[in-house]
Design goal:
heteropentamer; A mainly alpha; B mainly alpha; C mainly alpha; D mainly alpha; E mainly alpha; A: mainly alpha; two-stranded antiparallel sheet; B: mainly alpha; globular; EC 1.6.5.11 (chain C); oxidoreductase activity, acting on NAD(P)H (chain C)
Chain lengths: 518, 348, 100, 509, 137
């Protein structure tokens, strides 16, 4: 394999960013007419290029030490960014979700006035996610975090003559702004305590208990002591800021509103890719920067995995029970995505006080995020299709849809059952993976709530299936057009979801390796 | 010519300990009073007298020649006249914003002179971030303008305030970017450093003033500065033929005086900035003690330029203003920045 | 030199003022300003401890924070603008019609 | 390789059928399903003649015929592989599945009139999962198929079922899924407490049978807890009293071909899983718990029969009676004697054929008369002689008439249960109680036949009731022939079954 | 070198003192002749109609302001670069210090170009001027 310059390791992120700029340029050339095919094509191509790069690198061995025949971790800008297996893993998730969403959008926003802006914002946000997955410092993390958030605010509110969309955008923006402020303040406290922002340096500070400083790339210890209390508060606030991105309790309030109000492809994008971005930051920060072992060793600093356990359980129950009581499909999906955030939180919760089992549980969470990326995106894209057809938003509006659009409904059935954890899609395996991760450290409560919530989720997911296939169509609904882009995206997602049953071995291996190398 | 700042010089003159904070505070106050009154004198000279003379000369008239020699008596006369006028508070004005606006306009402009090296040791303070500071103070005036425009409860004032802000912000960025291109040469934001960097000769007798080194930036800066101080062709915020007097329509008596003074101090501040970062500050032939004279010459030169523009160039429309600012000046100043960087990179 | 905890107290106070504003005010613009306060509280910490620790990391980060705050304002004002156009009000509690 | 081919052909077939227009779907589906059916019959022949699998697939690896293993996933330290194979227990059940599916598809031509391609596609999809369930030798593979059965079944009942189909479908779905979760929990409680590295069933069996030092909760060993959990999980499928309540609804609401599959094969999944997991992997615990299990079995025998006695709906009668028949299987299994277990396994096959036959016949009658109520009709014999004849034969088979498959199965079970060491002194009592069940069955079947088939014809219809179409009767005939064949020559499958369960009972065949 | 901000603070004091003193002087010597009509806001002699608070002004002012917020902040990020540029050229070479800024400004220019082309800085976009597609009002 050819030896590329180090900065080329960022190619997946760069591809997305460059595509966004290219879209703006295309729009600048002729702002008055919009060529949907061109814009959509460019966006899909860009995200596919990024996906190709990520896949090439991850199998080319980027992030695996030379000793094991890999290319070694690509460290950029004095370790502000690192491209390792985990970063690439999440870049793959982001890129594939972006590809699906942009492909589906070609039909969804066809009549829309601001198409170039739409695609550009999606890709900007995606590039932010890609950078976030490589961020190795609270500084880059914060910048990337905002690069993810700001476009998504605009995306949610992009239907500017639609009260629902605007209201969703407002709520998303307000809560997002507050959480980013909390995040920034938490970072400032961590900096106050440790004197550094780079994850490894923070870890060094926590280990040695003394303030560190980073001089031309090397970490040097200072004399001053790390004030544990400030550090603890800082960590909690950082966690709060991240919890917003993952839509985890107690920062989940925006999720139902934002997902319901925003255009369905945007909801798909946010609930899949944005969540993944939040989690990659959480994984890296809490695995590298705040090693639970050292923290608990250093006395009165909170051992955060307990917090995560509580968060995980509460999030699971809140999300699933709320979802079970919904009357609108999109809102149900929104709450279910909150519940899934709870599942993935197990990845950070299922470890022992000394931090054992971290790699195992984290890889489980990563695997679930990947599978979830496809099945959840697919489900939301199906909702986008329903909106495209003008089908209502309630369960009973979906009645008998299976007769008019059997293919799409079959795909939706796959998504929902896979989300519920039936072995018809990869969701079954990833849930089992999480399950065994919990049992691995004997976290019975987590295991129990995982099983209970999966059983519960089957109930409300099957409501949609029932409506689509079993119920008789109520009222007259005429479905005249079968949009190609949306169909392609949905079918592609469904195929991948099913193929993840035989292919789950690869995924779990990648995730495991990535988590171990971290 | 790295001269010690004014307060320390004073302290040494009076034989006091320059490390004693109290002493320094007192000395600083004295120095500040000195600088302040100096500027007030300048503006008092410029506002009621020089401005009219110049305009009259342009329009081939005779102006202010009644009171005193060359009509210089007009200055105190006008001061008394304006101060003793009744202060009319229109109904519905938003106090205290309405009262604060003139104060802000007047005093922020004065603040900028703190870091300007005027030669002959007349250099109040020399912080490392001098240039950033002076830009900051210079742009604070627009807050006063929008306050005045908004608080007056008058449609002309409101439009004037909005125009003023739109114009200031449109030309702020070219201004600052062009200043940044100078910083690339000087490699420092400290005023004394920037001045010092312009001392060595460029070609023959010509000193390496940045106006000569980078005339392109100089022209850009002059234009942007015109817009900043709101003189023709950029005087639309108070375009008398369109919106009476813009944001100052409703002000009378002392408030009017303050706004008027503020504008002129602002003009001189702009001149001071130009003189410092483009014209070598107080540098000039003769002993360094003459520096102040040269400095005065330079800022009065800039003042004359603005007055010439006021009389000679027609006013632009608001849309032209915005388009010149965003499509012309901004792009040019970005280009200038990169160009300068390349040049400096090559010669360095 | 002023001891660090004073800066901490100051920033905490500013942060809490911002938080209070968020919790009590209903005007979206005031909300925005409160968020700016919170961000600037973070900036206080950064600059103060950058001085304390003697490295520039904090100051650079505060620059980032400013830039991002500005971008946030740009987006936020845009959203508030369309909010006003749709609801003829900038009261965050007025927008409660979550239906299409 | 053979099994992979079966799965692949059927899966592709189902996709293809889903895409064919409704008019041809039925025929195409029948043609497609004929392929695995004939293939499996051939496999059965090969197995029988060359006796490829002498022994139990889980306990003695040489017992695996048509085996194939491909590494798949290495998950959480457990290696999962695509691992399939057959032995004397699964071979007959596999054949039963394929044959019964194709017959059911043929029998669906008349009743199923709308969304046909989807119906037949789902039938074939279900066949894929069923083949997988009986052939899989790796837990994960097995579980995938096990759950995979539910999804097509849910749609088949929910979409093409009777008036209360939605309720029935949801009930079935929830029951079986919760059951799966319970079983899953019970099993993995064991898995995580034994040092397993592979989830292949033989490895699990090996690990569980000589697992030692399992933790205890409240004095009860983990093995027992898991056994109970897994038993409950599987008993729902069987079904065993008191977990049977989903069955009558599902049977009554499901269209005839679906209830044929339900009674004929899906119930056997439960007993098959019981045999594979509880009685093979946890044999010791099973022996220890023999008496209560036997009581459960007997109770469902009597209870099912009693309920059947109380029904007026032919379909309900058959449904409840199948509950009681499955009770025999439980009884036979707990006996842990060659005859008992062998008979139980044989009974699975036999009952699969007979109950399928019964449902199919009832279905044919219903297609003509549009009623299943015993009271509504009488004297069908002279209007549709063939159907009635087969119905009578099938009923006698159900009652355990000699020379019919039912007889062999039940006789062997009683014989085995009577001298079952595991049941000790309770054996005679329980067995005789179970025998009493047969009397009840005979009672209600005879009564029902007498009311409906014989006597003067009476049925309010506005059309002429005539004999059923050939393609309705043909499957019945085929099934009846199979029943008789197994009854005349039980060794056709009893031998291989004995080979398979010999390692369990300790004694040879 | 004493802290320069003391002197700056001093100038701030003076800068406030001068106007305030002028106000006081004026308030001592100026007359007060309250009279109805004087206090009417000036509208070229016409009777004032309505208040200035509810007049609708061109949305362009918002657009320009938003653009300014973004670009002005970028200059904040440019300034540190300009300060160290000259030394950095010597230290790490020209391309390494110049190219990142070129990329940065390139992105800025793309954004500006987009805003330009989409009429964010074109003034005549008022609803009455262009009825239809994407007005900003």
């Amino acid at each position: 394999m050819v030896q590329l310059p180090t900065w080329a390791a960022l190619a997946p992120a760069l591809a997305l960013g460059v595509t966004a700029l290219a879209l703006l340029l295309i729009d600048s050339v002729d702002p008055d007419t919009t060529n949907t095919g061109l814009l959509g094509g460019v966006s899909v191509a860009g995200s596919l290029v990024s996906l190709a790069f990520a896949v090439w690198f991850i199998f080319g061995g980027t992030g695996i030490p030379q000793s094991e025949g890999g290319q070694g971790v690509a460290t950029l800008f004095n370790g502000q960014l690192v491209v390792d297996q985990m970063a690439l893993f999440f870049m793959i998730i982001v890129a594939s979700v972006t590809a699906l969403v942009t492909l589906a959008s070609t039909d969804y926003v066809r009549e829309h006035a601001y198409q170039a802006e739409f695609y550009a914002l999606v890709l900007l946000s995606a590039s932010g996610m890609a950078i976030l997955s490589a961020a190795n410092s609270l500084a880059t993390a914060f910048v990337a975090f905002e690069l993810v958030s700001l476009p998504s605010y605009a995306l949610v509110a992009i239907l500017k003559d639609n009260r629902g969309s605007v209201e969703a955008g407002l709520k998303y923006f307000l809560i997002g702004a507050v959480s980013s402020a909390v995040f920034a303040y938490g970072i400032s406290l961590v900096y106050a305590a440790t004197g550094v922002l780079r994850f490894d340096a923070i870890a060094a500070a926590i280990d040695s208990g003394t303030v560190q400083t980073v001089a031309d790339g090397s970490i040097q210890a200072q004399s001053a002591q790390v004030p544990a209390s400030i550090l603890g508060v800082g960590i909690l606030m950082v966690l709060g800021g991240i919890a917003f991105k993952m839509a985890a309790v107690p920062f989940h309030f925006w999720a139902p509103e934002a997902y319901e109000g925003s255009p369905a492809p945007v909801a798909a994008f946010l609930s899949s890719a944005s969540k993944a971005a939040g989690f990659v930051l959480a994984f890296r920060a809490f695995a590298v920067a705040f090693p639970v072992g050292a923290l608990t060793a250093s006395g009165d600093v909170i051992s955060w995995f307990v917090v995560f356990q509580i968060l995980a359980i509460v999030t699971m129950f809140v999300g699933n029970f709320a979802a079970a009581t919904q009357e609108k499909v999109k809102r149900m999906m929104a709450y279910s995505s909150v519940g899934h955030a709870g599942y993935v939180l197990i990845g950070l919760a299922a470890l022992s006080a000394s931090g054992d089992g971290m790699a195992f549980s984290m890889s489980a969470g990563m695997a679930h995020l990947l599978v979830y990326g496809f099945m959840n995106t697919g489900a939301f894209l199906f909702i986008a299709l329903a909106e495209y057809w003008g089908v209502g938003r309630r369960f009973e509006d979906y009645n008998g849809l299976g007769r008019q659009a059997p293919l799409a409904c079959a795909a939706m059935t796959i998504f929902l059952f896979s989300l519920a954890g039936l072995p018809i899609g990869g969701g079954f395996f990833s849930k089992f993976y999480l399950f065994s991760a919990t049992l691995n450290v004997g976290a019975w409560t987590l295991a129990a709530s995982l099983v209970i919530n999966s059983a519960l989720s089957l109930f409300y997911y099957s409501r949609v299936v029932k409506a689509m296939w079993v119920e008789e169509p109520t009222g007259e609904r005429s479905i005249d057009s079968y949009p190609t882009g949306l169909y392609t995206a949905i079918v592609a997602a469904a195929v991948v979801t099913v193929l993840l049953i035989p292919g789950f071995g690869t995924v779990s291996d990648l995730a495991m390796r990535a988590a171990e190398l971290l | 010519m790295q001269s010690a700042p004014l307060p320390e010089t004073l302290a040494e003159l009076l034989g006091l300990d320059p490390n004693n904070t109290l002493v320094m505070i007192v000395m600083s106050l004295i120095g500040a009073a000195l600088i302040g009154s100096l500027m007030m004198t300048n503006t008092a000279l410029a506002g009621p007298w020089a401005k009219r003379k110049i305009t009259a000369a342009f329009t081939d008239r005779i102006a202010v020649n009644r009171i005193g020699p060359f009509g210089l008596g007009t200055i105190p006369a006008d001061a008394v006249r304006l101060l003793s006028k009744e202060l009319i508070v229109p109904e519905g004005v938003d106090r205290p914003a309405w009262d604060l606006a003139p104060l802000i306009i007047a005093s922020t402009a004065l603040l900028g002179f703190a870091v300007i090296p005027m030669g002959s040791g007349l250099h109040l303070a020399d912080p490392e971030v001098g240039l950033a500071y002076v830009f900051a103070t210079a742009s604070m005036a627009s807050i006063g303008l929008i306050m005045a425009g908004y608080a007056s409860n008058n449609k002309y004032s409101f439009l004037g305030g909005l125009r003023a802000v739109a114009q200031n912000i449109a030309y702020e960025i070219p201004l600052i970017l062009t200043g940044a291109s100078v910083v690339i040469f000087a490699g420092s934001l400290q005023m004394s450093e920037i001045v010092a960097a312009q001392t060595q000769p460029l070609i023959g007798p010509l000193p390496s003033w940045y106006a000569f080194v980078n005339p392109f930036a100089f022209v850009l800066f002059m234009i942007a500065n015109l817009a900043e101080v709101g003189r023709n062709p950029f005087d639309i915020p108070e375009a008398p033929t369109e919106i009476v007097a813009g944001y100052q329509t409703e002000y009378s008596s002392v408030y009017f005086v303050l706004i008027y003074l503020g504008e002129f101090i602002h003009i001189f501040l702009g001149g001071a900035i130009i003189a410092t970062i483009f014209l070598g500050g107080p540098a000039g032939p003769g002993p360094a003690s003459l520096g102040f004279i040269w400095f005065m010459v330079k800022i009065w030169g800039v003042f004359l330029f603005t007055q010439w523009a006021r009389s000679a160039i027609p006013r632009v429309r608001i849309d032209q203003l915005i388009e010149i600012g965003w499509k012309g000046m901004l792009v040019l100043s970005l280009a200038n920045l990169l160009l300068t960087a390349v040049i400096v990179g090559v010669i360095a | 030199m002023i001891p660090a905890q004073w800066y901490l107290l100051l920033s905490a106070a500013v942060f809490c003022i911002g938080l209070f504003g968020i919790l009590t005010r209903r005007n979206a613009l005031v909300f925005l300003m409160s968020v700016e306060l919170m961000l600037n509280a973070a900036n206080i910490n950064f600059v103060a401890f950058s001085l304390q620790h003697g490295n520039l990391t904090g100051q650079v980060f505060s620059l980032f924070t400013m830039a991002l705050a500005a971008a946030e304002v740009a987006v936020g004002v845009g959203i508030i603008l369309v909010l006003y156009r749709n609801f003829t009000d900038v009261d965050v509690t007025k927008a409660t019609t979550m239906r299409w | 390789m053979w099994i992979a081919a079966l799965l692949a052909v059927t899966l592709l077939g189902s996709v293809g059928v889903m895409l064919t227009p409704d008019r041809y779907a039925g025929k195409v589906a029948a043609a497609v399903s004929a392929v695995p059916a004939l293939a499996s019959v051939y496999m059965y022949y090969v197995f029988l003649t060359q006796n490829g699998g002498a022994g139990n697939a889980l306990l003695s690896p040489e017992g695996i015929a048509f085996g194939q293993q491909v590494p798949w996933i290495d998950l959480a330290g457990y290696s999962i592989s695509y691992y399939v194979g057959l032995d004397g227990v699964s071979m007959p059940l596999l054949t039963l599945t394929t044959v019964l599916t194709s017959l059911a598809i043929v029998s669906a031509w008349t009743p199923i009139s709308e969304r046909q391609s989807q119906f037949y596609g789902l039938m074939l999809l279900m066949e894929v999962s069923l083949i997988g369930v009986f052939a899989a030798l790796d837990f994960f593979l097995w579980f995938v198929f096990w759950e995979g059965v539910l999804i097509p079944m849910y749609f088949l009942i929910g979409v093409w079922g009777g008036p209360r189909r939605k309720y029935a479908a949801i009930k079935f779905f929830v029951y079986t899924n919760v059951a799966s979760l319970v079983m899953f929990a019970g099993l993995f409680a064991l898995v995580f407490n034994t040092d397993l590295t592979s989830l292949a069933l033989p490895a699990m069996a090996e690990a569980f049978r000589n697992a030692s030092g399992l933790p205890e909760f409240a004095g009860i060993g983990l093995a027992t807890i898991s056994f109970v959990l897994m038993f409950v999980g599987f008993a729902v499928k069987v079904p065993v009293f008191p977990l049977h309540t989903w069955l009558p609804d599902a049977h009554v609401e499901a269209p005839t071909p679906v209830s044929v599959m339900l009674a004929g094969v899906l119930l056997k999944m439960g007993t098959y899983a019981l045999l594979r997991f509880n009685f093979t992997m946890l044999a010791e615990t099973a022996r220890a718990l023999a008496v209560p299990l036997a009581i459960v079995g007997v109770v469902s025998v009597i209870y099912g029969a009693m309920l059947a006695l109380a029904q007026r709906d032919l379909k309900r009668i058959v449904a409840y009676s199948s509950i009681s028949s499955m009770g025999y299987v439980i009884l036979g299994l707990v006996a842990f004697t060659p005859h008992g277990m062998g008979g139980a396994t044989f009974q699975m096959v036999a009952h699969g054929l007979i109950s399928g036959l019964m449902f199919m016949t009832v279905g044919v009658i219903y297609n003509t008369t549009h009623t299943r109520m015993v009271g509504d009709m009488s004297g069908l014999a002279d209007r549709m002689p063939w159907t009635v004849g087969i119905f009578v034969a099938a009923a006698f088979g159900y009652m355990g008439l000699p020379l019919m498959a039912g007889f062999a199965g039940e006789f062997l079970i009683f014989q085995g249960a009577f001298d079952a060491a595991t049941l000790g002194s309770a054996a005679p009592l329980l067995t005789s109680l179970a025998m009493f069940g047969i009397v009840i069955v005979a009672g209600y079947l005879l009564w029902a036949m007498q009311r409906t088939l014989f006597g003067g014809f009476h049925l309010e219809t506005d059309y002429e009731v005539g004999p059923a179409a050939f393609h309705d009767v043909a499957p019945l005939a085929v099934l009846l022939l199979l029943v008789i064949a197994l009854g005349v020559a039980p060794d056709l499958s009893y031998d291989m079954i004995q080979h398979a369960i010999a390692p369990l009972t300790g004694g040879g065949a | 070198m004493s802290n320069p901000w003391i002197a700056i603070g001093a100038l701030a004091v003076v800068g406030l003192a001068i106007p305030v003193s002028m106000m006081t002087v004026s308030s001592l010597i100026r007359p007060r002749v309250p009279e109805q009509g004087k206090t009417a806001t000036y509208e070229s002699g016409e009777v004032p109609t309505g208040s200035s608070q509810e007049i609708k002004f061109n949305i362009q002012y918002y657009m320009v302001a938003l653009l300014f917020v973004v670009f002005d902040i970028e200059t904040v990020l440019i300034f540190p670069w300009t300060v160290i540029y000259r030394d950095a050229v010597g230290a790490v070479g020209m391309s390494k210090i110049l190219l990142p800024m070129v990329a940065f400004i390139g992105v800025l220019v793309v954004g500006l170009g987009w805003a330009w082309r989409n009429g964010a800085v074109r003034w005549v976009r008022s609803p009455r001027a262009t009825k239809g597609a994407d007005t900003y009002e």
